[in-house]
Amino acid sequence: MHSKAAAEFAILQQLSDPKFIRAFLTELDEKIRLTSENQEHWLARANLCRRGGFLKEAREAFLNYQRMAGGSAVRRMSQNNVTPVEVPTANGAKIAPIIMIDGFLDAKDQKGLLDYAVANKEAFRDANINSKQPQYDPDKRKTLVFHKFEFMRDHFINHISENIAQMTGDLGLEQFQVDIQEIKITNHVEGGFFRVHTDNRSEFAAAGRAITWLYYFSNVPSNFTGGDLLVFDSDIEKDEYQLQSFTKIAAKPNRLVAFPSWYYHAVVPVRQTSKKFADGRFAIAGHVRKVACKPGR
């Protein structure tokens, strides 16, 4: 990782530092205690919590924010939403709507998936930057990837297909016709990362990736630190994001996460003591691609 990437991640680590966040929350909670019906205080609390990775607290604060907004001012969160839909932040950006499901697989399938990935170590390769830049660049990304895996592949594809309408609604997207699903296994070992990027820069009407999802299945307990997913507040029309405003999601084993592919995101560097492949940050990474449609549909 070059110095520019290292400096960027250092800033993000400071912004999401739990001690730093808790200090601000202590001050804010006193204001909330005195003026509990102040809608903007609850939104501020939600934004601090999600930046620190306190997702349960963030959800509770968002629910209070929505309760005070009332009526149809904001779209209600489903039971799987960590963050809501259509909430603006700074400079025209919006909070990325995210759904998250913990305990996605039973213990047997989770272990079977990990055993399969470890047994197929030789099938993993260094990942390219993306499908449009088919070259390896260690300053943009350090990820191991296994594309043609078989174990439980159909299980994940079928689950997404069967629940696509619910996922689309929870993520605030218009219903669309699915083209194909992309799916692969990734592993981030010592020093692994993925700098800030988006999976789709095209307008919604164009064909391309629409939903990005990940399923984490590392050892329990995890034998690494870092590897958090950061999903940034983004202005999709301008193709911009706010570096200081994001939701941090820990790569907790047996957790499924999904968000619209237009939102910028990153994977912070992984740190391992063992340096073993089997102790890495494993994930199944998927993309639901849509066909082109008429604007406004």
From TrEMBL:
Q: Which GO terms describe its molecular function?
A: dioxygenase activity; iron ion binding; L-ascorbic acid binding; oxidoreductase activity, acting on paired donors, with incorporation or reduction of molecular oxygen
Q: Keyword annotations for this protein?
A: Dioxygenase, Iron, Metal-binding, Oxidoreductase, Vitamin C
Which Pfam family is one of those matched by this entry? 2OG-FeII_Oxy_3
Question: Which cofactor is essential here?
Answer: L-ascorbate
Name the SMART domains on file: P4Hc (SM00702)
Q: Identify the residues that the record assigns to the Fe2OG dioxygenase domain, covering every copy.
A: 179-290
Classification via InterPro entries: Oxoglu/Fe-dep_dioxygenase_dom, Pro_4_hyd_alph, Pro_4_hyd_alph_FE2OG_OXY
| Record protein name field | Fe2OG dioxygenase domain-containing protein
Q: Which organism is it from?
A: Pontixanthobacter gangjinensis
